[in-house]
Amino acid sequence: MAKITEVPRPNPTQKAIGSWGLSLVLFPLAIVGIAVLVVQLDTYETVAYPMHELGEPMFVTARENVGTVNSGLEKIGSGQLVGAEDIAYETKSGLLYTGCEDGWIKRVKLTDSVADSVVENWVHTGGRPIGIAMDESGDVFVADAYKGLLKVSSDGKLELLTHEAEGVKFGMPDGVAVAKNGMVYFTDATYKYDFPGAVNDIYEGRPHGRLLSYDPSTKETKVLARDLYFANGVEISPDQDFVIFCETFMRRCPRYYLQGEKKGSIDVFVDNLPGLPDNIRYDGDGHYWLGIPWGNSLLTKFIQTYPFARKILAFIFKHLHKMPELMKFGGVIALDLEGNTIRGYYDDSWKMTTSGLKIGEHLYMGSIIRPHILRLNLTQNPLPVSTTNTTRKGNGWWGSGLVFFSFVVVSIMLLVVMLNKSKTVTYQMYKFSKTIFLTDRKNTRSLSSLEKIGLDELIGAEDIAYDSNSGVVYKGCEDGWIKRVMLNYSVVENWVHTGGRPIGIAIDDFGDVYVADAFKGLLKVSVDGELELLADEAEGVKFGLIDGIVVAKNGMVYFTDVAYKYGLHQWFHDFLEGRPHGRLLSYDPSTKQTYVILRDYYFANGVELSLNQDFVIFCETFMRKCSRYYLQGEKKGSIDVFVDNLLGVPDNIRYDGDGHYWLAIPWDDPFSLKFIQTYPFIRKILAFTIKYLHKMPDS
């Protein structure tokens, strides 16, 4: 027999402190792991982009941080031009046209002084006008995200031209341009998603965009090009021989030939752009001006390369209905007639700059989010000024990108956990004191006299009862069998099957065995093996998980119901919730009555009687203590603490007849356990883990 050896008193907090460091590592990993699992289980699918088609972003000579320059930068229509994405200009009247977030097509009378500019609500489309263009007669054509392709005559009459092509409804009409012959060219950014959900087109990674044409003479809509990655801005060449359209997610602008030998074919006008292109406009002076709402970065490339990263972002958008901010700068670049970049402007505050149009000596810049149009004096801000690689700025965001993604993952976890209906409350931590010191012998696996009985036959043998008359040990096992073990021969016998899960077990003076079965209730097995159900409820409340049990000499049975709210497979939720659902009960065989002696305990567990039968001890697991209920004497019916501040959570307690109680400690008391009990939200995270993994974390 192994002897208890007195050794110098150890510091019981040493293990706890060591566990704290481990907890700091495990908790973030657990949160990330849960988040990844939750996102992976989502039915939303993302696929890989054709990254082989993307080259290194080009160098662009640009003037950076123009927004910090006071001279030459002005705001037009502040507060009146919210979300003015695209811009069209009529030279005859000097009017600028734009579609805004409130559904109005607005006209702006341009003057030398911004203060004198007049904004007029001209025509309301009833939708969300985005792309806008004018023909030579003064009619305005609008790509409305909700309505379709619209026409507004010079006198303000609104007409719906088309809202589908080849039987497929437009998802989000975006860019539009009108040729000199009256043909209208426009894009459907994505036929699968509408305007509010268009960002999902980025995340999914499949090409749903289309380039289309509308012939006013025949009223026919044709699909010129399909399977485009977010087809965006459109512009026609000065010679009307090709139409340029922006393929935003591929950082390129292809062109579709309208005339000549290449008619009907497509090639690339410009690619490897320094950011994601939006609208493109020709200024009549040999230059195209291209809006860049997002600058390129390694983070952008990372998101495009890895579908799961986009699935995370899609998950955020699904639950928050808001797109995370990926980039911090945008701007406008100028291209020559061959698609070569000439110059550009960008600024940290110019994110989501969607269009640029040069009128006279000014560059007018629209944005889908700003409440105004920016006007930059090009004479006062000439180019080139400095040669700047616009990708360097983006690369600088790589470090913050990693931080962003860590934040995203944690945010997803917090969001999902918060949405979960599981509720957790605060434990009564003020009742805890410092853990007691204990003289112990560690690493008992090294003891030569340590043996295993019933290897692979006694799986889940939680409690033990011993019949000294027969020398037989009784145990309830995971397979539902109450098993008998002849200690002298170490023979294991399957004795009686309960049909449930026997946990607590005790024996009376007559040799009858009493069982606390987690599924069935309180059972009795006679000496000859006859099984009887004694009770499965008390005061009209079914047992949730009965656990500990003991039989007094007078035949009274005392037992615990761990948590009337949860069953065996959900017991850990009782710990995580933090509310007391445990009960101490008694069963009187003479009257067959079940009584609730005590209620509102934190996981009422093991039970034992004192030597003199004057009190019953029961373990309150999650409070790390064992209380006693007095059965006789002056204190009859009262409760006090038998032992508390244990070095771990107590389970079963048994008296050996030789003056000692033996208390099992399934978990020690690391700092992480106190941390979990102190903060309800941490327990909510763990509850969510169990819900999806159906497995309890190793605490």
Automatic annotation (TrEMBL):
The keyword RNA-binding does not apply. SUPFAM superfamilies: Calcium-dependent phosphotriesterase. The keyword Transmembrane helix applies. It is found in: Vacuole. Keywords: Glycoprotein, Membrane, Transmembrane, Transmembrane helix, Vacuole. It comes from the Eukaryota. This is Six-bladed beta-propeller, TolB-like protein. It comes from Cynara cardunculus var. scolymus.
